[in-house]
Design goal:
heterodimer; A: alpha/beta; Rossmann fold; 3 domains; six-stranded mixed beta sheet; 39% helix; B: alpha/beta; MetI-like fold; 12% strand; elongated
């Protein structure tokens, strides 16, 4: 096994005249979480979709375990690259409302022709167990579950093909605070158990800091800073990262007042 | 959070079985279904039901009155009207089925592909559809009748093609609505082919409106087919309702009643299809709404206690209960909330979704969603109880003394009007000042909320400014009439974090400058820590804890508050990466 599972090399994407990804270079190691943080329009989701094969790549290479998967649709990918999975932001629209949980979980398995129908059903039990949902959930519809439970179903679906990489696009942004913490714990627990790597896209630096080993900060289609998590979040080098860090209010009135002053000073200095 | 989204919604939505059942429990739907079933039974078992063959004629029963073996009498050629009605049903329905199938297969297939793939394919197909729609159907049918002969089946195939744009446009629009849903992306990531995504994910989700359209088009096909037969464009040897109508029309002065039977058959069948479609549509639109509001709990207590005596208290909410009508009685979403807000104070109302924080805010504004009511308790605002105040009275307060900043700035600006108009209009109405004066004030306000070029923003449409700018505009509008109380519902949740910091800064400055009281509804403890003086923590419609902001974070009392604060992700130690051995990766 090489020490890198995904490597983006000079990836560029254009939407018409808009240059939305500019020379992206990024690596993810096996079993690692790389947080991708940025504001709306920074290109973080576009990069995630390019790696998933559902978004365009204009130039550059995306190597997954050595093979170039840039611009190749998921159904045309071979080997382990075919098992790259996703967990999306909104658990209310990422599950088809007219399918049962079992149908949803069997779908990726059936699509890859990996198991017979009977095996797939047994697999569904195991998947639900992995995300701490009761096995009778299989016969119910998404609408019968809360946001946090739906996101667990979405995670179970992502695990169905035993992927080596899951691209998580804002997977906890739509959840309540306490639910968010539990779902993040589940992500960490699954990673420690299976060794899956995450590319974790989020606008929320505190979430990214919680789950990531390394963090990339994006702005205007570029990665402005990429490094170890504590380095980027505690001692940022780039001005934008500093501002991003100070802009998020912390749950402590005394410290928040200090940060506010620091942010103001930074704005004046800029 | 919008009032609609936070209103209680029972967790069951229309499914396939429940649609069938609820359509049948709708009286009109049930009648329509029974009548259609009768027509279909007549079609299938025609030889068993009809006493005579369709062509049997008895010369002495020409235009005979009902009776003597002929249940509904004889027609102009001495044939049994009842038997011909039964056989006619068969031919009429087959004709309609042909038109319907052709229209649905062409229209739905083309709509699925055009909608899903888009691009040039969609443009070409839409041109064809528009072209077909522009053709006058009846003239086309007559032209084909001239060149292809008297087969009604051929005419119905052509008519089906003419009807297909209706299905095409409906399906394409529906597909455009669902193709960007995340579950379609998830299916693509799972490796499904486009065909399987269309079949499994798209067709399944859009089926209901297509079924409704099918039912309506079935009715139209029957009418058109009968019309063609009536004009004599069918095969006279085959009994159809339209043909019978023609025959009865020819003999109208001899037996006026004969025209009744085919006419009734056509109208009842067509009406049944339309009613069935309506029943399905009603069911889908109604969702789980409750038809009638249940009776109010006995004796709604008004004005509990007296007005607060302390003049420093601007808002005093006591034992507020807000309910929405449910299947049995009322669902209480706010359950005995008490709050006090002093002049110039910022009160945070914090909680998770479903805690009732937004509903409490909307109750104070008098803007509960449809059906919502203040069931008991009172809201003292500046010495006056405004709970359940008539709408006309509430309107005098809102905008002038109580202002509101929403969560989604874009959806709270009307895209059809310039920002300037939307800013000046409330000032002209509420303050009664002239337009010129309102404009001068609006420009000053826009400059105050940090617009770099107030004139340009004044003349812009909402889509021309960013989300952060739009929120500044809404803040400007909220403070334009110098309100005493500002209610802000998640005012920065939809904004980027750096923009959020700027908007919070602006709100803090304005609050201090104008000495406004603010109720800030939020789920974000960071925003609370940044802006609030006091905080009320809500859970399940109740306030579990109210403290000064520093006390709340330093020394939370309630277990729920402690749990929430523990879930805040500030100050975590970063994870340490341990390189994996190859065998550890689950294969």
């Amino acid at each position: 096994m090489s020490d890198v599972i995904v490597e983006c090399i000079d990836v560029n994407t254009h939407f018409g005249v808009h240059h939305v990804l500019k020379n992206i270079n990024l690596t993810v190691r096996p079993g690692e979480t790389v947080g991708l943080v940025g504001e709306s329009g920074s290109g973080k989701t576009t990069l995630g979709r390019a790696i998933l094969g559902i978004g365009p790549v204009s130039s550059g290479r995306i190597l997954f375990e050595g093979q170039d998967i840039a611009g190749i649709a998921p159904r045309d990918r071979k080997g382990n690259a075919a098992s790259i999975q996703a967990v999306f932001q909104d658990p209310y629209t990422s599950l088809n409302p007219s399918m049962t949980i079992e149908d949803i979980l069997v779908e990726p398995i059936a699509a890859r022709g990996q198991a017979s129908k009977v095996d797939a059903t047994a697999q569904v039990r195991k998947l639900l167990d992995q995300v701490a949902l009761p096995s009778d959930a299989a016969y119910r519809y998404p609408r019968e579950f809360s946001g946090g439970q739906r996101q667990r179903v979405a995670i179970a679906r992502a695990l169905a093909l035993s992927p080596h990489l899951i691209v998580c696009d804002e997977p906890v942004s739509a959840l309540d605070l306490s639910t968010q913490a539990r779902v993040l714990e589940l992500f960490v627990e699954i990673q420690e158990r299976t060794g899956v790597a995450y590319l974790f896209v989020s606008h929320d630096l505190s979430v990214v800091r919680h789950i990531s080993h390394r963090v990339a900060v994006m702005r205007g289609g570029e990665i402005v800073e990429f490094g170890e998590c504590d380095q980027v979040t505690a001692n940022p080098q780039h001005d934008y990262t500093k501002r991003l860090l100070l802009a998020a209010p912390v749950a402590d009135p005394v410290r928040q007042a200090d940060r506010r002053a620091a942010l103001r000073a930074l704005a004046v200095g800029a | 959070m919008s009032p609609a989204s936070s209103a209680p919604a029972p967790v069951s939505a229309p499914g396939r079985v429940s649609i069938v059942r609820s359509v049948l429990t709708n009286p009109l739907g049930l009648i329509a279904a029974i009548l259609l079933l009768l027509v279909i039974v007549a079609t299938v078992f025609a030889p068993l039901i009809a006493p005579f063959a369709a062509g049997d004629l008895q010369i002495f029963k020409i235009n005979a009155p009902p009776g003597d073996g002929y249940l509904l009498g004889g027609d102009g050629s001495g044939r049994d009207i009842f038997s011909r009605l039964v056989y006619g049903a068969q031919n009429t329905l087959i004709g309609a089925l042909i038109a319907l199938s052709v229209a649905a297969i062409i229209g739905v297939t083309a709509g699925l592909f055009a909608g899903y793939f888009g691009g040039r394919r969609e443009v070409v197909m839409s041109w064809i559809a528009d072209g077909l729609m522009a053709l006058p159907a009846l003239i086309v049918l007559l032209a084909f009748y001239q060149s292809l002969g008297s087969s009604i089946h051929v005419s119905m195939v052509i008519f089906g093609v003419m009807l297909s744009p209706g299905f095409y446009r409906l399906t394409r629009n529906l597909v455009n609505g669902v193709k960007h849903e995340l579950y379609v992306d998830a299916a693509r990531v799972s490796g499904l082919s486009d065909m399987r995504i269309i079949a499994r994910h798209i067709l399944l989700v859009i089926r209901a409106p297509v079924i409704i359209q099918t039912s309506i088009v079935a009715g139209i096909s029957i009418v058109i087919q009968a019309g063609l037969e009536f004009l004599g464009l069918g095969d006279p040897s085959i009994p159809t309702w339209g043909g019978m109508l023609q025959d009865a029309f020819a003999n109208m002065f001899v037996v006026p009643t004969a025209i009744l039977w085919p006419g009734l058959a056509i109208s009842v069948t067509v009406a049944s299809f339309v009613l069935l479609a309506n029943a399905i549509r009603d069911r889908l639109q109604q969702g789980n709404r409750v038809a009638a509001a249940p009776a109010l709990p006995a004796a709604v207590p008004q004005s509990v206690g007296a007005a607060p005596t302390d003049a420093g208290v601007l808002l005093d909410v006591r034992d507020l209960v807000v309910g929405y009508p449910a299947k049995s009685g009322w669902t209480e979403v706010v359950n005995g909330v008490s709050l006090q807000l002093r002049r110039g104070e910022v009160l945070g109302l914090v909680g998770e979704s479903g805690s009732g924080k937004t509903q409490t805010a909307f109750a104070i504004l008098g803007l509960l969603s449809t059906g919502g009511r203040i069931l008991s308790g009172c809201i003292w605002f500046d010495g006056r109880d405004i709970a359940n105040l008539p709408e006309s009275e509430m309107q005098k307060l809102r905008g002038k003394r109580i202002a509101y900043v929403p969560q989604e700035p874009m959806s709270n600006l009307d895209p059809a009007f310039r920002i300037g108009y939307q800013l000046t209009e409330p000032m002209v109405t509420v303050l009664g000042i002239s337009r010129a004066e309102a404009k001068a004030r609006a420009l000053k306000l826009l400059a105050r909320v940090g617009m770099p070029d107030p004139n340009r923003t004044f003349n812009s449409y909402p889509h021309q400014v960013s989300g952060g700018m739009a929120q500044r505009v809404l803040i400007a509008r909220a403070i334009s009439c110098s309100p005493d109380l500002l209610i802000a519902d998640e005012p920065t949740t939809a904004l980027d974090v750096t923009v959020q910091a700027e908007v919070l800064e602006l709100m803090r400055d304005l609050q201090a400058e104008m000495n406004m009281s603010v109720v800030l509804v939020t789920h974000n403890f960071g925003v609370v820590a940044d802006l609030c003086h006091r905080v009320s923590v809500m859970k399940d419609g109740r306030v579990v804890e109210t403290s000064a902001v520093k006390t709340l974070f330093a020394d939370p009392q309630h277990d729920y508050t402690k749990m929430l604060l523990a879930a805040v992700l500030d100050d975590v130690t970063p994870r340490v990466y341990k390189p994996l051995q190859a065998k550890e990766v689950s294969a």
